[in-house]
Design a protein that fits this description.
The structure holds two protein chains of two kinds.
Chain A (H helix, E strand, L loop, with lengths): L1 H59 L15 E7 L9 H18 L3 E7 L1 H9 L4 E5 L9 H16 L5 E11 L2 E10 L9 H4 L7 E3 L2 H76 L1
Parallel strand pairs in A: 1-2, 1-4, 2-3
Antiparallel strand pairs in A: 4-5
Helix pairs in contact in A: 1-6, 4-6
Chain B lengths: L3 E6 L4 E7 L1 E6 L2 E5 L6 E5 L3 E6 L5 E14 L2 E11 L5 H16 L6 H29 L1
The chains are: A alpha/beta, B alpha+beta.
Chain lengths: 293, 143
């Protein structure tokens, strides 16, 4: 019977889809674990840099001519977007990009120009399709393989765009990882620096504020600042990557579960159809036999 | 015996986090020797420098550190640097390859260009690493 054969085919294809999504789920959770270890190894570095900045900031207070703190009249806004290279990660990209869309519309309404720096193929394709002005698309290395050195290059480029006056403000549009099931598209101002996020306040109290600085506070501060921005960029990259993998893992888990359910339903239909055809055949035989006798 | 807590942190890992007897390292304005109960301090670390850690049992160990900051507070010395390796971890083959690469790059560049300076910096780092690794290997055969 054609219907039975069709059903058999569908059951098989659903099973193989479940197998693929199951494998993708496993790959995603493995990558997730890897990124998390990387993030953990990186956390002390960020903490130390921020701690130093916090300590030294008191010493340079009042010197407002540090270029990275300069608030200008905003005509052009730079947006650094981190999206994923690949799809099949649930609503990860669409959440980010629809939030970005809103921001772009708001900025355009204010008559500001917007330029983009993009990490991740999905975001780039999205911006290109809409004819936006993508200043730079970071391809190498892929976000998955990016290390601190590549974050440094990105940070350098963003800072250059700001200091050269190409943009008057630089924002970061990325996804922050809140929990295994919650990822929030976030818009943060990168430059000019307004506040420096410092961790635990309680710990800061114990610090000795009177200390030697060599060669002098401004020099150390000025060389510390780019380091700080690098950690901000790398942190954003790691967070985005963690969200991507967690989101993909969730999406793939959902797909695998759905495929399992579908397979069960199809099997039920298939068995019913098979039973029906057997009954029909039996009836035919019985009917034939009684006609003969 | 007086001790000072030493933490050496890089973006990839925390290399050292323990109590030691003293530490010396190369800062942006010269060499620093840090003994227990050192006054609070903050300074930069040289682009390609070395640090010598003296353990509480008198043993000493050298390491490569580059590009970062040092601070002392509450008897804790923190070296936050972009790269760092203990002398024993240095891969001499890799360092030699880097040295070669940097030399080749420098040969073809204008001496005033940014790239030249970058290549020169990476050559310096390679040489500093090489020196440490050789020194360690040398002392190893003597003892």
């Amino acid at each position: 019977m054609a219907n039975l054969k069709e059903l058999r085919g569908r059951i098989k294809s659903v099973a193989s889809i479940a197998q693929i999504t199951g494998a993708m789920e496993m790959v995603a959770s493995m990558k997730l674990r890897k990124v998390q270890t990387k993030a953990q190894a990186f956390a002390p570095y960020t903490a130390e840099i921020r701690d130093m900045i916090f300590r030294i900031a008191a010493k340079v207070a009042g010197e407002e001519d540090v270029p990275l703190f300069q608030v200008r009249d905003v005509k052009t806004v730079g947006v650094f977007v981190i999206s994923s290279d690949r799809g099949l990660c649930g609503s990860y990209n669409s959440n980010l990009l629809s939030a970005l869309r809103k921001k772009i519309d708001a900025l355009k309404a204010e008559g500001k120009q917007v330029k983009f720096w993009v990490y991740g193929r999905k975001g780039y394709a999205w911006l290109q399709r809409r004819g936006f002005d993508v200043e730079r698309f970071f391809v190498e290395p892929a976000l998955d393989k990016a290390d601190f050195a590549s974050a440094k290059l990105v940070a350098q480029e963003l800072v250059d765009a700001f200091t050269s006056g190409q943009v008057d403000e630089m924002c970061m549009f990325t996804t922050r990882f809140q929990s295994m099931v919650k990822f929030v598209p976030t818009d943060a101002t990168f430059l000019p620096i307004k506040t420096i996020a410092v961790g635990d306040d309680a710990e800061q109290q114990k610090m000795e504020l009177d200390f030697l600085i060599e060669p002098d506070a401004t020099t150390v501060f000025n060389s510390l600042m780019p380091r700080y921005l690098e950690t901000v960029v790398f942190d954003a990259m790691l967070q985005a990557l963690t969200s991507e993998h967690a989101s993909r893992r969730m999406a793939m888990k959902g797909a695998t579960d759905a495929a399992g359910r579908m397979q069960k339903d199809l099997k039920k239909i298939y068995n019913r159809a098979r039973q029906e055809s057997i009954t029909k055949e039996l009836l035919d035989i019985v009917g034939g036999a009684s006609a003969v006798s | 015996m007086a001790e000072i807590h030493l933490r050496i942190v890089t973006p990839d890992r925390t290399i050292v986090d323990r109590k030691v007897a003293s530490v010396s390292f190369v800062g942006t304005d010269g060499e620093y020797g840090v003994l227990p109960r050192h006054a609070p301090l903050m300074t930069g670390i040289a682009q390609s420098g070395t640090a010598t850690i003296v353990e509480t049992d008198g043993q000493s160990e050298e390491m490569f550190i580059s590009d970062g900051f040092a601070q002392v507070q509450n008897n804790v010395l923190t070296l936050v640097c972009e790269a760092g390796e203990l002398a024993g971890e240095i891969d001499l083959d890799r360092v030699k390859r880097k040295e070669q690469e940097a030399r080749e790059k420098m040969a073809g560049l204008n001496k005033l260009s940014q790239e030249f300076l970058k290549a020169e910096a990476s050559l310096r780092k390679a040489l500093a690493r090489e020196r440490l690794a050789r020194k360690r290997a040398g002392s190893g055969t003597l003892s």
